[in-house]
Structure formats: C-alpha cells, structure tokens
Amino acid sequence: MTSLFSFSGTVFRHLGRGKELGYPTANIQIDQDTPEGIYVGYARISGRSYPALIFVGRPLTFGETDKKAEVYILDFDQDIYEMNVDVSVMKKLRENLKFDSQEALISQMQQDERDAREYFNTNKDLT
User: Fold this and answer.
1) What distances in angstroms separate CA 60 from CA 51, 64, 115, one per listed residue?
2) pLDDT over 90 (residue 113)
3) What strands lie across the sheet with 84-94, from one edge to the other?
C-alpha cells in the first residue's frame, strides 16, 4: 500500500499539552500546504518504523493558529527531541475539528487511537 503523502522534520519541544492529555506527541514543523486531518501512518526514527496516529493542522480546540504535525507513536516511550522523524501517512481517519471541551477532545482522541490500532491490526504486513 502506498502512502497518501509523507513529511519529515526535527522534533521540537512545544507546550507539552499532548502529554497532559495522555497522548505525548512528537511536534514537527510542516509545509503550510500539507493536508489537514487526523491520519494513521508510520514514524521512522533511526532506521526503525513505528505505527503512529498523526495530527496535521491547527489545534482549533485551543485557539492556536500555527499549523504543525503532532505524531503520537503507539506504545512508544523514548525521548526523541531534536531527532529527525520521517512520517509516511497511510490513511485519513477524519477532519480536524474544534471540540467544546478538553474532555470531548480526549474522548475523540481515545476513539482515534482505537481506530488506529484497528487499522494496524488489519494491515500488519505494511511495516
């Protein structure tokens, strides 16, 4: 299966909000024309590929205007700040949405994670 698109960049330290929400992400600067949405794909770090849930866009729930990528690598707990990550986007799950509360966002993120895990369980041979 071919990817929808890909991007790469150096992981930078941002607000740490993802970690507070239970979803620590690798923040990566992206081209402004990169399509927005919530995706599943793979993050390649130091030659190894990991399944990931990928947000591309502006964090609308928090009123942010800077477009970036936030990559949540499933079952991953390593410090990768300042490291380069290559991301291959495989499938779009949904559009970028603004939620009425942080709790509503977390609930949707939990559903997104379930959808991502289902995708990877169904497509095990793609790594």
Assistant:
1) 25, 6, 21
2) yes
3) 5-10, 84-94, 37-45, 48-57, 68-73, 26-28
pLDDT band with cut points at 50, 70 and 90 for residue 126:
low
CB-based burial of residue 127 (10 Å sphere; 0-12 exposed, 13-18 middle, 19+ buried)?
A: exposed
User: How would you write 78-113 as a 3-class SS string?
Assistant: CCCCCCEEEEEEEEEEECCCCCCCHHHHHHHHHHHH
- Which tens digits make up the pLDDT trace of 60-78? 888 888 899 999 999 998 9
Dihedral, 115, 117, 120, 121 alpha carbons, nearest 10: -110
Q: Which domains does the chain have, with CATH numbers?
A: 5-122 (2.40.30.30)
Q: Indicate the pTM of the whole model.
A: 0.90
